[in-house]
Amino acid sequence: MSFAAILALAIAGLVAAPYIAHRLRRQQAEERLFAATRLVPPTPPKARRRARLEDRGLFAIRGLSVIALALLGASPLVTCSRLALSRSGTSVAMAIVLDDSMSMRVVDASGRSRFQRAQEGAREILGALRDGDAAAIVLAGSPARVGLAATTDVGAARSALDGIAASDRATDLDGAVAIARTLVTELPQIDRRIIVLSDLADGKPDAPPLGEGSVLPVWVAMPELRATAGADDCGVLSADRAGGRARVRFACSSAGAAAGREVQIKDGDKVLATAPLPQTQMGEATLTVTVDEARELVAQLTGKDSIASDDTAPVVVEAGPAALAVVGDRNEEAVATGGAPVVEQALAALHVELAVRPIPQVPDRREDTAPFAAIIVDDPPGFTPEQRRALGSFVESGGVLLVTLGRRAAAAPLGANFEPLLTQAVGWDSSSVSGVEAASGATFFGEAAASLADLAPKGRAKLAEQDISAYEPLLKWTDSLPLVARRSRGRGEFWLTTLPFSVEVSDLALRPGFLALLDAFVTEAKHRATPRRGDVGVPWTFAGARTVEVQGPSGPLSPTRDDGTLRLVPTLAGAYRVTIDGAKELRVAAPLAREIDLRSRAVTPGATSSALGGGVAIVDVSWMIALALLALVAAELSSRALARSRAGQPDTARLG
Amino acid sequence: MKRTAGSTFPSKSPGLRRSIDWGSLAPLRIRARMVAEGVYAGAHRSARKGAGVEFGGHRAYTPGDDLRWLDVRSLLRHDHLLVRQFETETDRALRLVVDSTASMGYRGAKAPASKAAWASLVAAALARVAIRSGDPVGLGFIGGSPQALGVPVSGGREAFERVVDALESQSASGDALTNLETLDRALAALARSARRGSVVVVLSDLLDLPAEAAERISAVATRGRVVVVVQVLDPDEATFPFTETVRLRSLEGNVTVESDEAARDRYLAALGELQETWRRILVGRGASFLTMTTDQDPVAAVRSIIEAVL
Asked: Residue A334: helix, strand or coil by DSSP?
């Protein structure tokens, strides 16, 4: 028996002794015969009347004081199961990696999600911080990001933690640990640690153990979050509709998770089509849907699983991948050895994700530009008014237009100019040029710019001064005139080169720098041509848009402005109704298949070591109880003083 | 044995002794004569001699009857012992009713004797006065020992002896509260035999009588009878002297109450209400109601009763 137990028994004895003494002393009143007993009213015993409360407030204060005293005495014995760091005595710098990915939505038997438990654990860890300790918060939902830079302000850390919400992002544990390491490495504290609060389900169960090779100790603080018993999930990755068919792609944490489940296509509450879910870990179900394409349909999995948020997805009307149009005369631009024009071959070599579609002439209707994210026009002889209007509208709405200027451009017929690309006519300068200033394009083209240093064309297009000043040069000739330049207009961009792609004018198209130019152009086009469906966590940019309103699955969202461009990161899977400068469109954020794999990643043995921290700590609540006791004493003194002043007041009614 | 204050008997053996606690009032015979003498000293003697002028009928002879009123003709003719009654004699017969239920055995610390003893003394003195005045006397009991019989109405010196003997042989027992028959037995004979002008004196604490008692006793006051009800209380019952918490147990009705001095005011109010109820009912029927305590001078008590009768 420990000393504390003996002490507790002794205190219990002291408490019980007065009561026992009272019981022993207690005896019945003397019984007497009395003829008139029938007329005697019973009265409560005198002791009970004496014990009757006269000042309940004072009694309450004293009672609470006694309780507070007892608690004060017992406070050293109070322990509480909560997370706390093992400390060596020095101040600690810690980075808390909090996983806010979709797999953390799995709900355990207690009815709380893994994310809620991890957030609570983070609060407990922050609560154990002392003066001089520093904490940073890193969020492991993909892409990994800083939730709070290292700070010694615990209040700020708590506020930041409270502002973090669960999301449907994928998991990027490696990235988060790397960021965490960066955040605490430079801090002055000697004891630096990374605390991971995650289920470790990052879709890479076979990856190297987390924490392996880390220079800082990594502590996986809540290993119970990894419990996968009973955790099964199936989620809809995408639901597309084309013609009378709907294709629903799904993924499951295991093949067995799909057993007995179906996928339904619903219009509101009405079920339009149902198909059993194939018994595979990842697959596709095809359903026949005959309703009008204008109806907004939903693909939904029947049954229940660990994560409900990925069981439903909006059905998107399939529009095919965005395309890149190349305008040119295939006969004239075909290389001498045969085959497609050099620009098409270069695009094929780059393996761009956009479909390259050669078209014979520049579209002269806005509808004709709709399938394209980018248009390349090689040395056009000017644009007709219809073409100018169509191209202007195309760029305004987010398209990217690349126009190369050559001899034909310089010889544009009357009425066919380059508005709105250029305001003045284009000339042709046949004089020789002494190459390209590689340094001017180093930042944009990288090392490939050097390949253009000795470019020696037979001539080049000449722009008016005011047109040159309107463009941002990306690559300059040695005489500082632009070779490649661009200009924003609306949500899109104009690009131009003062050399055509024709190998008869220059060997530009044969140099590595040409591929770099096309790659930069295509990247910009893809960047602006955001598909209707994107991954959760991948930002949507609205370049050039003036106003963007977004209604997400959880309500209205406000895009942020980054370098003048509006951006929005969809953190939840589902439908987003986006209004860009008045034009409405439906976008969908879809979960990643690897996030549905709930298998946990291995960790190094040291990551779960109790030397880094544990789940039990003594809680020092004595100061709080002492404060409460002081407040009670003050309350009693005030109460007594008030009662005394009342008793001392003269009875004015009697005196008067 | 040392007496416990406020109790008839030692508290450890309640209810074992039922004989009357005479206290300082013993012996009854002598004390009654002394009381009667005191009454005489302060009052004139009755003008009535017992010899009436208007024949009032016959009644059966009872041992102790004055032989002067024995109807000789009836004896000779019918061999029946009958007594001739005259209005004067029959009208003023004193009928004493003494409550001998258990509650009357109570004696408090300040009382010279139990209520039953005090009531007996007053009753005997009244009998003495009446007999000395030539009025016949009868005695009845409410409750009490079944062996103790009442005394039929009779006159003469023997009548006093009979009354005293009956009172001395009585004990305080019985429960009139739960047993209404106890009261009815005492009053039925009275209502039947008491003639016009009879004086009925009821001596009782009235504490443990049933609710109907006031109505039944007041009903006797009809037909020209004079009824005086004397409530006899122990000083403890009149003042409620308890200061500590006590468990009080009634002598009738088996009621136990835990109480202390805080109940005094309410007790006295309840007692006053009881007395007022009796007074209202009795006075409404022409009867008189007196309240006396056992520490009161018996002579003054007898005088008060006689004054109430007159």
From this structure: strand
